[in-house]
Amino acid sequence: MDITPTLIAYLHLCHRKIWLHAKHLRMESSSDLVAEGRLIGEITYPQRAGKWQEIDLGIGKIDFFDAKTNTVHEVKKSNKKEQSHIAQVKYYLYLLEKIGVENPRAVIEYPKLRIVENVEWDSETDSIEVEQWLSTATNILQGTCPPKMSKSKCKKCSYFDFCWSGEED
């Protein structure tokens, strides 16, 4: 099974979420939060579609890539920075390096926070870290469905209703 950038992000959020998504139990299409994220990316930076290109890596797409500087631009709707965002972008950088892109870089933009975060990439150490994530993800996906996290951590997850329907508060 191919490990996608989305699965790497989910690995850093919830092991149950990565497992469910990989098994094609997808809740994002009905999630208002996911739809809001797409809309923010489209309306916040409308000029990008003409300026930068989308790159299809086979297992995931980079929405905005500046080929002149080898920079991935990732937009997140979140009102807080998360490790999952950095992990997803580092996986993009790993994949780009694997196909021969030299010195790939990335920035994560948080329009709600008005913050742009540069993601550092060290080919030696970060490649090892990404390969560990891939190994961990593979182990999770080969097992049975992981348990739920605590309900308080799940409130904004697109899988919340799936995991918690029928549960008392």
From TrEMBL:
<keyword id="KW-0479">Metal-binding</keyword>
<dbReference type="Pfam" id="PF01930">
    <property type="entry name" value="Cas_Cas4"/>
</dbReference>
<dbReference type="GO" id="GO:0004527">
    <property type="term" value="F:exonuclease activity"/>
</dbReference>
<dbReference type="GO" id="GO:0046872">
    <property type="term" value="F:metal ion binding"/>
</dbReference>
<dbReference type="InterPro" id="IPR013343">
    <property type="entry name" value="CRISPR-assoc_prot_Cas4"/>
</dbReference>
<keyword id="KW-0408">Iron</keyword>
<dbReference type="GO" id="GO:0051607">
    <property type="term" value="P:defense response to virus"/>
</dbReference>
<keyword id="KW-0378">Hydrolase</keyword>
<dbReference type="InterPro" id="IPR011604">
    <property type="entry name" value="PDDEXK-like_dom_sf"/>
</dbReference>
<comment type="similarity">
    <text>Belongs to the CRISPR-associated exonuclease Cas4 family.</text>
</comment>
<keyword id="KW-0051">Antiviral defense</keyword>
<dbReference type="InterPro" id="IPR022765">
    <property type="entry name" value="Dna2/Cas4_DUF83"/>
</dbReference>
<feature type="domain" description="DUF83">
    <location>
        <begin position="6"/>
        <end position="165"/>
    </location>
</feature>
<protein>
    <recommendedName>
        <fullName>CRISPR-associated exonuclease Cas4</fullName>
        <ecNumber>3.1.12.1</ecNumber>
    </recommendedName>
</protein>
<comment type="function">
    <text>CRISPR (clustered regularly interspaced short palindromic repeat) is an adaptive immune system that provides protection against mobile genetic elements (viruses, transposable elements and conjugative plasmids). CRISPR clusters contain sequences complementary to antecedent mobile elements and target invading nucleic acids. CRISPR clusters are transcribed and processed into CRISPR RNA (crRNA).</text>
</comment>
<keyword id="KW-0269">Exonuclease</keyword>
<dbReference type="GO" id="GO:0051536">
    <property type="term" value="F:iron-sulfur cluster binding"/>
</dbReference>
<keyword id="KW-0540">Nuclease</keyword>
<keyword id="KW-0411">Iron-sulfur</keyword>
<keyword id="KW-0464">Manganese</keyword>
